[in-house]
Amino acid sequence: MHTSALVLFSGGQDSTTCLALALSKYERVETIAFDYRQRHSVELEARLRVLEQIKLQFPQWAHKLGEDHLLDLGVLGQVSETSLTRDVAFKMESSGLPNTFVPGRNLLFLTLAAALAYRRDLQVMVTGVCETDFSGYPDCRDDTMKAMQLALSLGMDKRFLIETPLMWIDKADTWALAASLGGPPLVDLIIEHTHTCYLGDRVHRQAWGYGCGECPACDLRAKGYDRWIAATE
Questions:
Q1: What residue ranges define each of the domains in the chain, with the CATH number in brackets?
Q2: Long-range Cβ pairs for the range 202-205 (8 Å, 24+)
Q3: DSSP letter (8 states) at residue 97
Q4: Confidence grade of residue 103 (pLDDT, cut at 50, 70, 90)
Q5: Most exposed residue of 9, 16, 18, 216, measured as fewest CB within 10 angstroms of its CB?
């Protein structure tokens, strides 16, 4: 039986929902994030506020929340000519993928997370990748996650479980999941403190939270929020 987990925690809506789910399931939960020189690096500050608020607002989870880890992954920014790591406009590439796709990002994240989980004796890695509401990123697919789970387990001779609770649900369902886990307080926490906007906008307050309201991440979050609200009325 699994009792411990490492959550890949960026401080966004998806990873915060995954963190809440992990805290509801496991006795010991740690978090990990990566500084890869992303344009929306404000998320690295937002995630600390989210962790603080979870401890303050959810005493039933606070004692389970263990160490937080931030790894410097600047090399990823050096090899990535994408709109997430360079000041360029969002667009679709000839490959059919948006230029927000950072090649190898999730593969590298999971490899480093597994190395940390190995050292910290954490059994499960939880990540918010999704094949339902996503931009076509190949490293978010279920097949990729299963292949990574096998490769990491074999390569480290330790049986890892990669848990992807959002894989088959859309953004409206993600809002609903958060509500089921932590009620209105968790939904409010996600709105006020999490960060999704690719442009790092923490000035404009929308019904669903802070963001420019125009980038792909904001658009996805906003439409999911609207569908969830409509379903609850």
A1: 4-232 (3.40.50.620)
A2: 202/42, 202/46
A3: S
A4: low
A5: 216
